[in-house]
Amino acid sequence: MRAINKILLAAAIVIVCGLTWSCGKGGGGIGDILIPNIGGVWANQANANDQFSFFNAPTNAATGTFDGNQVVNGTVTGTLTGSFNHSKISFVVTPNDNSAARSYSGTISGPPSPVMVLTSAGKKFTYVKQ
After folding, report:
1. Higher confidence at residue 35 or residue 2?
2. Residue 73 has what pLDDT?
3. What is the pLDDT of residue 67?
4. I need a labelling partner for 73 at 20 to 30 A (CA). Which of 46, 58, 95, 96 fits?
5. Taking a C-beta distance cutoff of 8 angstroms, is the pair 77, 96 a contact?
6. Long-range contact list for 18-21, CB < 8 A, 24+ apart?
7. Cis omega (within 30 of 0) for bond into 112
8. What tens digit of pLDDT does each residue of 53-88 get?
């Protein structure tokens, strides 16, 4: 019985140390354990006619790549490619009009109501999953 108690105590110590290490500086932390389902349409909270559609994104995966479109007023205005790692997301939109590409990066929160907060060219945008 004593051996079992020692094994359980050792396992508990390993778990606590592992969580402490992962939550420390430089670690991903508990906030990064999100496994997002980013596929689908995301609308700008300030202007629902400004949307991102993400395709080919893996589901039930902590990391992955995707592609998609930016849609404004029902018209595809650019294509995008990007990646995510838990709650962090980044992608580049290449406009159809050959203007300069735009980079976006930010975080995803949720469920139950997924929200994506992005920064591009020093401006902050909030998108909600439709």
Report:
1. 35
2. 97
3. 98
4. 58
5. yes
6. none
7. yes
8. 999 999 889 999 999 999 999 999 999 999 999 999
Label residues 20-59 b or e (16+ Cβ within 10 Å = b).
eeeeeeeeeeeeeebebbbbeebbbeeeeebbbbbeebbe
With a threshold of 0.70, does the pTM exceed it? yes
> What's the CA gap between 91 and 70, in Å, rounded?
11
Task: Provide the pLDDT for residue 28.
Answer: 46
Residues ≥6 apart with Cβ < 8 Å to 23: 29, 30
CA–CA gap between residue 38 and residue 94 (Å, rounded)? 19
What does the chain look like in DSSP terms, one character per residue? -HHHHHHHHHHHHHHHHHHHHHHSTTS--GGG-------EEEEESS-TTEEEEEES--SS-SEEEEEEEEEETTEEEEEEEEEEETTEEEEEEEETT----EEEEEEEE-SSS-EEEEEETTEEEEEEE-
The number of residues making up the chain comes to 130
CA atoms of 76 and 95, how far apart (whole Å)? 9
Residue at 8: amino acid letter: L
* Amino acid at position 122, single letter: G
